[in-house]
Design a protein that fits this description.
mainly alpha; two-stranded antiparallel ribbon
């Protein structure tokens, strides 16, 4: 088991090193992405100012607390640009062009290869901006930080990243049956924009939607609550359960999908 983990870790490092070498040939992209991230962040802050109003509150959250949620969303959006989009968007083209056959012939797990083969550094400005915004908001917040809260928040943020990955992979994997599913992944990405703000800021019907159907609450609000020392045991357990269940479901789904995949050579 340990040998297998080391082999996959070395493969991951090799994948990302070659991706970085290829992507850094176009260094101007970093400047463009930085401008785009700052523009999106400025737009989000402007909307937050409008929603918070003169009282500086949004759904029972103070201004600085709401900024923590926005920072976590910006961080996850950067993660999406770094890993999810450059990899999972290619599953559709692999199926359409028949190159998925070559992936399945490789002596490595196909889901791992499809999920990690590429790395785009152009999402790093979003990651850095998200971390900076979280740090700034926590420094100006009246909430007391604790090591336990930070550890729990890190675990819940990881769980949110796994849930986000599962949603993307499930939609991309549908390309084995349906041709134009890339539009659905774009719709998913823009739907998850709702995670920029605390889930309590939305009407009750949307809260149910963003918790039980699209688990937006587990992506941003629940980790933010842990950072701010407001973590609920039920919500934290729900987030961890949703993450583990979604990863198992993703694995089972991919195995099922491969049994229905008709290769280009057959």
């Amino acid at each position: 088991m340990a040998h297998r983990v080391r082999r996959y870790w070395r493969s991951l490092l090799s994948f990302w090193a070659t991706s970085m070498e290829a992507e850094l040939e176009y260094q101007l992209n970093l400047v463009i992405e930085l401008v785009a991230v700052l523009g999106n962040l400025a737009g989000s802050l402007f909307v937050l100012v409008l929603l918070a109003g003169p009282r500086g509150e949004l759904g029972g959250w103070s201004w600085n607390s709401a900024l923590v949620v926005l920072g976590i969303y910006t961080l996850l959006d950067g993660f999406t640009s770094c890993v999810l989009q450059p990899n999972l968007s290619k599953i559709v083209s692999h199926v359409q062009n028949g190159t998925l056959d070559f992936v399945l012939l490789k002596p490595i797990d196909s889901q791992f290869w499809l999920s990690t083969r590429s790395f785009s550094p152009w999402g790093l400005p979003g990651v850095v901006a998200g971390i900076a915004l979280i740090g700034w908001a926590l420094a100006h917040s009246e909430e007391a930080l604790s090591l336990e809260g930070m550890a729990l928040a890190l675990a819940l943020l990881t769980a949110g990243g796994l849930i986000l990955y599962s949603l993307w992979f499930l939609l991309a994997g549908l390309s084995i049956w349906f041709v134009k599913v890339w539009n659905a992944t774009e719709v998913l990405r823009y739907t998850l924009v709702a995670g920029r703000y605390p889930i309590s800021a939305y009407p009750p019907a949307l809260r149910v939607l963003f918790t039980l159907v699209l688990p937006v609450a587990f992506l941003t609000t629940v980790p933010a609550e842990a950072l701010l020392g407001r973590a609920s045991a039920a919500w934290a357990l729900g987030s961890l359960t949703a993450a583990s269940s979604s990863m198992v479901a993703t694995r089972l789904f991919w195995q099922f999908a491969l049994r229905h995949y008709t290769s280009a050579s057959s």
